[in-house]
Amino acid sequence: MGSFVSRNKQFEPATDVPDLTGKVAIVTGGNSGMGFRAVQQLARKGAKVYMAARNESRATGAISQLEAEGLGPGNGKVEWLKLDLSDPKQSNAAAEEILSKEKTLDILVNNAGIQSSPWQMNPVGIQETMVVNHFSPYIFTKTLMPLLTSSAQAGHDVRIVNVTSMTVALVPSDPHFRTKEDYNFKYEGQLMDGLKRYGKSKLANMLWANELQRQFDAQSVPVICMSVDPGGVITEGSVAVTNNNIWLWIIFNGSRYFMHTAEQGGHSITFPAASPVVRANPELYKGALLKEMKVSAKPKMGQDKALGKELTESTEELLKEMGL
After folding, report:
1. Is 285 known to be catalytic?
2. Segments in the chain below pLDDT 70
3. Signal peptide position in this chain (predicted)?
4. What is the pTM of this model?
């Protein structure tokens, strides 16, 4: 159960990830599910890992569990970083806290997000799913860019991993990211409207990873940015979401046999974040979409450069409106 089966071999962090002593990593949403297991896998190889999460008691409880299960043989360190993705300004402040504490940053995993939730307006005037899954991770990462860049230029193996989703396939054709109205689209009256909104936010994550890679490449900075579709993963979050929707419950429970455990989901993050295979083949992995730890073809809309540019430009404009 500890290994994740890919098409060619099994990936096991304990043997397939090198010593990470001295490396600094951030995993958002690291207090539960596959994020929690990714934190564990990186820390056990010696990394200092920031568990970025909103709730202090849950985060400290998760860190206590990690310590009880053992962080050896690498004996890395796990620290809580307060990150509230429902508030872009707090997300910016969390990144600034990292800038004040660390001189280097090797791994950034944008894993946290809310799944198929009811449509809800955030105080910034954009629906909650888009704020939590796109706008806040965007400003968090943008604020960390100088540190990521300087670390890479100093010779560190720097990687950014955006967790996306198979639900991108549910997004109706010809999506746009031009205005608040585009971000606030409800898919009202459509089947699985919540999953479509979630899928659109995950499409944004994929397009944004492409744009990040283009930015680094244009500046000749050797950072590798990747999108990861972990497939179906049984986590506390996925179980809670499906319990609130009869159709999702039927689909989820009908496919449980084929789904991954949280530990296996963690492997899908740890592989792009830390496997030496990635750095050995940078041109293969730069801007890539990974499924089952293999480079996979992106959906047409997920590789649309014009849509990615549209996303970046509107995100920057709307963040300025928020005072960021």
Report:
1. no
2. 1-9, 232-260, 262
3. none
4. 0.90
